[in-house]
Write a structure and sequence with these properties.
Layout lengths: L1 E6 L5 H14 L8 E6 L11 H9 L14 H6 L2 E4 L2 H10 L8 E3 H4 L16 H31 L1
Helix pairs in contact: 1-2, 1-6, 2-6
The protein binds 4-nitrophenyl phosphate (4NP).
Length: 161
């Protein structure tokens, strides 16, 4: 199972989500069964490490994302990943518009996909302060449980198919 997390710049939300989900999945019965990656719809920060505030926030929670490097969404990502999970509705619209029609149903909002019915968007913390990065981390943390639960169901369904 391959998951791609998508945001705008690939330096704040999606690398935090990638690092956290990798840590949570590897500590679950799903360890070794899920490949995670992240990208941005924009290319402004391609090749750069995550924003220092994102690195600090993740480190505060015991997750090292300093080795990640930003890259832009590419055509290959649509065939390479089972799900393209987007941080907000703008990202979802862009990701669907750039991809083949076949992939539309595999592009989703991360929080909805994780079953967080009341929330849709992971708000962009780029122009905010440390508290906004911490709020993003807390929201992703709540979503992580739903992500693991859903993945367990999908992998079970695959095994019995
Ligand atoms: P992200 O945040 O999409 O969560 O990585 C942003 C990072 C950079 C920019 C916008 C959002 N930017 O405009 O450069």
């Amino acid at each position: 199972m391959r998951l791609l997390v998508v945001c705008l710049g690939n330096i704040c939300r999606s690398p935090m989500a990638e690092g956290m989900l990798r840590a949570r999945i590897e500590a679950s019965p799903l360890a070794g069964q899920v490949i995670l990656d992240s990208v941005g719809t924009g290319n402004w920060h391609a090749g750069e490490p995550p924003d220092p505030r994102a690195i600090t926030t993740a480190a505060r929670h015991g997750v090292d994302i300093s080795g990640l490097r930003a890259r832009q969404l590419s055509r290959d990502d649509y065939s390479r990943h089972d799900w393209l999970l987007c941080a907000d509705r703008d990202n979802l619209r862009d990701v669907r518009a750039r991809g083949p029609a076949e992939a539309h149903s595999r592009c989703a909002l991360l929080l909805e996909w994780a079953g967080m019915a009341a929330d849709t968007d992971v708000r962009d913390p780029y122009t905010g302060d440390d508290a906004e990065f911490e709020a993003v981390w807390a929201m992703l943390d709540r979503a992580a449980h739903g992500v693991v639960t859903r993945l367990e169901g999908e992998l079970r369904a695959r095994e019995s198919a």
